[in-house]
Amino acid sequence: MRWLVLYLRCRGIPAASIAATTTVITAWTLWTIWSDTRQVGTELATLTIALLVAVTGGTLAGPDEALDRTASISWPPRRAIHLLVTLAALALLLALTLVTDTRFTPFELAVRDVIGLLGLTALGAAVLGAHRAWFLPLAGTLLALMFWSYQHTAVGRLISWPLQPADATAAALTAAALGLAGAVAHIVRGSAPRATDATLT
User: Fold this and answer.
1) What pTM was computed for the model?
2) Dist CA 48 CA 42 (whole Å)
């Protein structure tokens, strides 16, 4: 139990949890006040999910990423569990809105976007480091918003996958591929060390 508490604290999970909860509450409140429809708009929902996964990026490594590569601890299973728990926690946070009038629905679309964007976050951690993991999901979401008006083209549909309807097969496959690629990269490689950490090792 003590190890778990230390793990949560060194990964900044309490702060990330507060930030994620605040993000959902803020989006929910704004939509409730300013919109007559009860289903949160696709653009706002996608941006909210991108912010959710972005704030969890910093939890994918401790203060010293190099320590997460030591052979004394079997890190891959812990990284896999961390990603699965993060996925479940974010999905649950969005699912809580289903008991209210203002909802992040269709819920399967929200889960699809969480999987894909969390995969981008994990990939960002593996390539850029946990401190920069937020870049890929936010950049991917901004590109999706920019190409949303070009969804009549194949390239536009591919890039704007987070905004596609819940029954869009290509979007589901893209999210699954990103989720799997990011998970494998992070589980196997871990978080890329900061430049200062790399010089010390």
Assistant:
1) 0.90
2) 10
